[in-house]
Amino acid sequence: MARGKLRIYLGAAPGVGKTYAMLSEAHRRVERGTDCVVAFVEHYDRPRTEVMLHGLEQVPRRTLEYRGGVFPEMDLDAVLDRRPQIALVDELAHTNVPGSRNAKRWQDVEELLAAGIDVISTVNIQHLESLGDVVESITGVRQQETVPDEVVRRADQIELVDMSPEALRRRMAHGNIYQPDKVDAALSNYFRPGNLTALRELALLWVADRVDAYLTQYRSEHRVSRIWGSRERIVVGLTGGPEGRTLIRRAARLAEKGAGGEVLAVYIARGDGLTSASPKELAMQRTLAEDLGGTFHHVVGDDIPAALLAFARGVNATQIVLGSSRRKTWQYVFGPGVGATVARESGPDLDVHIVTHDEVAKGRGLPVARDARLGRSRRVWGWIVGVAGPPVLAVLLNSVDPGLANDMLLFLALTVAAALLGGLLPALASAAVGSLLLNYFYTPPLHRWVIADPKNIVAIVIFVAVGVAVASVVDLAARRTHQAARLRAESEILSFLAGNVLRGETGLENLLERVRETFGMESAALLERASDVEPWTCAGRVGQGHPVERPEQADVDMPVGDHMALALTGRVLPAEDRRVLAAFAAQAAVVLDRRRLQEEADRARALAEGNRIRTALLAAVSHDLRTPLAGIKAAVSSLRSEDVEWSEEDRAELLEGIEEGADRLDHLVGNLLDMSRLQTGTVTPLIREIDLDEVVPMALGGVPEGSAGLDVPETLPMVAVDPGLLERAVANLVENAVKYSPAGSPVLVAASALADRVEVRVVDRGPGVPDEAKDRIFEPFQRYGDAPRGAGVGLGLAVARGFAEAMSGTLNAEDTPGGGLTMVLTLRAAGTRPEHTAEPERQAS
């Protein structure tokens, strides 16, 4: 079934005419023969809106009772059964009355759309979830009913219902929106001209962004590369130099001259990560661009002019702002520069502004041979061989005359050696010095800086060319080796991050410490804030040094989204390191979100467990505790009654019933209190070394005589237990076993030693428990089988296991050979270390 289409009428404030426009559209659809019904429309006693409902089929509403009142709501099931082509659903952000199928009306609309029904709805701009803080700052009113922005963005059609603030206030004053007794208050508060103007601007801008998204999607789908100047978009090309701030401010002034102007600051980094840009300066420029309402973008590209033009055309920009070149005059021999290239290739649809600044012609340095990767010692030896080697070789060759060809080969070998050692520059120096020495000493006429034979000129040129070529190859190989090593290191780091994700590790401090160690920093901190106007707070920090309170105070800061940043102090990182740092920053944000979600899940789990315990406790109190109370009350009332003459036997029987009821109450309340202590973690045992025959016999005092037998050898080693907790645990086990044992089959309590442990076994011949239920019977408020409600609240075994674990013991259930159930209580023998201890031992209270 095809999904229905959603059309939304969006307004800036109540009363602009959204519902009226929706009903007008419905009448047009009905006149064309479309099956259209009113699922829910609220006219608020506005006469013109109420009249528009005439002639439209309305689905009857359902009424719900809530807190003593009756409220009408949309009957979702009735609309789904009716299955119209179009359903009118007013107030998309409305919160349904408790008891409805969905909490929000937009969720009802989602069900209608999923059923293939087209929906026309309305919503005000102040009800969009992302604008809640902005609307509150404007109007002073926090909107309680909101709808997620994504729901509205997914609409197939959005139509803005607009009205000027003056016209809306006139409608309000004429009583067309609110009742007369509310008009003055509304005009003085929410419907003030400033509020309405600001809300109107929000609505217009939101719809404009929506239209812009449609346009971008259309251009992408139809591969439109030509710029459409629908609005002024100004791209600022940044080099990372100090002139960037001047360019951003200039672009912001240009954007202010056109309605809806937008500034996009972009920094083009080379693909090999080599740049002279200051990360600190880039961070300041990013902050400035965002403060002026623009956005900052980081793009990678080896051909900077081509990358800049591709970015500008990709965002449908209309203007580019560049700074005048910082090159010195002589540096133009290397090319026309970025500004001139962009201006030449921009075409007629993209204007280029060249802005002067204080750094013009002060020099920025051109890329030079990057032989730093060869190491300091190799570069030193390369220069020694390249500069000092040719004169030394010339001295040696003066004593021996091998011929010009051999002389050139020897000098070429020296140039190759300089290239292998030091890279491009030492090799060029060796070629230059070697060619001069060859010309002076070995090329006729000798000892003159001229060459008589043209063949010798060709030979020297070839010599220089071969030297330069070899030096270039060595330099390229060194750079590729460095890049490969760097990529290998980056891949190892990214593999580490991926492993963290797969393993589900959530240690934020450990990750920050890894960041600090990886990049050699003094400290690392993850900063966040709720909104652009809120102060920064530290979510996690490692390392030494002065704490960073804002990203701008750090030597390196890497933004993560709009309101989070990873801040590092210690040194400035090169651009090539920021790629990996961005991955670390994203992982840190994920770890923080995961930790918070885990904390929320733990809190929710604790609340759910607490609610389950409280619900079961209430159920127990409502029945199991009231049963003995009712018996005691009936017996006491009978004894006090003057209408009946009780015999001594009857009085004794009633008193015995009172005593049994009181004992049962004492036992049930004791178990409830013990369970409460276990749940809150306040059970701290006082461990002593004691013999089992001093405690276990006392635990059998609460069961009928002859219902339990005892087998505790005197040769058993002493156990390290809390006597009080052990007695309670064994008593609960024996009571439970007696309850399920058949008549004439006494329960056996036996003890035996096993290595450094002592086992107490409570054996019964009852019906037993299947394997899948053996763990479940130890849960609170669990009864097995068809045990009657009055048989207890189901806490005896849970309390016994809790006490056993508090004494570093265990309690498990096993099948009794021949039928029945055996409870195995394993205790620690005296003189052995516990496997785990919780706190210093204190007296259990």
General description of the model:
- By secondary structure, the chain is of the alpha/beta class.
- It has a 6-stranded parallel sheet, sandwiched between helices. A 5-stranded parallel sheet has the order 11-10-9-12-13, with helices on both faces. A 5-stranded mixed sheet has the order 19-21-22-24-23.
- Strand 2 (36-40), helix 2 and strand 3 form a beta-alpha-beta unit.
- It is flat, with a radius of gyration of 43 Å.
- The model is unreliable at 364-372, 786-793 and 836-845 (pLDDT under 50).
- Pfam families: DUF4118, HATPase_c, HisKA, KdpD, Usp.
- Its EC number is 2.7.13.3.
- Residues 620-831 form the Histidine kinase domain.
- It is a multi-pass membrane protein.
- It catalyses: ATP + protein L-histidine = ADP + protein N-phospho-L-histidine.
Q: Enumerate how many helices there are, as a single number.
A: 24
| Strand segment count | 24
The coarse silhouette is flat
Share of helical residues: 40-55%
Give me the side-by-side strand order of the main sheet: 3-2-6-7-1-8
Radius of gyration equals 43 Å
Largest sheet report: 6 strands, parallel
Strand content: 15-25%
Q: What structural class should be given to the helix and strand makeup? A: alpha/beta
- The termini sit apart by 66 Å
Low-confidence stretches: 364-372, 786-793, 836-845
- Please state the average pLDDT score: 79
Helices and strands, with pairings:
Layout: E1 6-11, H1 18-31, E2 36-40, H2 47-52, E3 57-58, E4 62-66, E5 69-73, H3 76-82, E6 86-89, H4 105-114, E7 118-124, H5 132-139, H6 149-153, E8 157-161, H7 165-173, H8 180-188, H9 193-221, E9 233-238, H10 244-256, E10 262-269, H11 279-291, E11 295-300, H12 304-314, E12 319-323, H13 338-345, E13 351-355, H14 376-399, H15 404-422, H16 424-442, H17 454-503, H18 508-519, E14 523-528, E15 537-543, E16 556-559, E17 564-569, H19 575-623, H20 626-640, H21 648-680, E18 688-690, H22 696-699, E19 708-711, E20 719-721, H23 723-740, E21 747-754, E22 757-763, H24 796-806, E23 810-815, E24 821-828
Parallel strand pairs: 1-7, 1-8, 2-3, 2-6, 6-7, 9-10, 9-12, 10-11, 12-13, 19-21
Antiparallel strand pairs: 4-5, 14-15, 14-17, 16-17, 18-20, 21-22, 22-24, 23-24
